[in-house]
Fold this protein.
Amino acid sequence: GESVGLHLPTLSVQEGDNSIINCAYSNSASDYFIWYKQESGKGPQFIIDIRSNMDKRQGQRVTVLLNKTVKHLSLQIAATQPGDSAVYFCAESIYNAGNMLTFGGGTRLMVKP
Amino acid sequence: DVKVTQSSRYLVKRTGEKVFLECVQDMDHENMFWYRQDPGLGLRLIYFSYDVKMKEKGDIPEGYSVSREKKERFSLILESASTNQTSMYLCATTAQGGVRSSYEQYFGPGTRLTVT
């Protein structure tokens, strides 16, 4: 079936560097995407979302890029901090089909001091 | 802020036991979801509910049932727990779609269930 996947299961970066977490999706009908952050012992927390009518959206220190041609999504974190260490999930949905999300397997981000 | 609470953070049960996992939300959201989370597999949807007394199967409903008697509460039931149901269980909630610009799901802290 259709699925959402991640290229890198673990990403290690130096504090202060920029991080890029990637996600590939296979359902061409998906038109809504969310990035979640999950810290140890906690449930996932919303970071940022993007609809398919956009190719870039910025938040505070985070940017999501969407490339519909190659079905690729990325999360960029600027000036990575130790508090950014967590597992990051992308999720896809068909916006007008309701609130159903399909999640990827997750990428662990480790920030070295 | 939306608050989603789950009845237990850690739970240990024996094979064959009946297990109840409770989820409560305080934001009057219509939609509630139960996921299980396993390493490398991400979050997989077990069941969801769009309204009181309504339920829909997700991707992996086998071995589970749910109950939604009140809007704020969504229960996941393992009728006869098995070792392959050892996992992290996450509850989530979201408001009805339509005019909302986001389908952000708010998650509880999770219940780590071990079946021995």
Notes: Chain B has a mean pLDDT of 90.
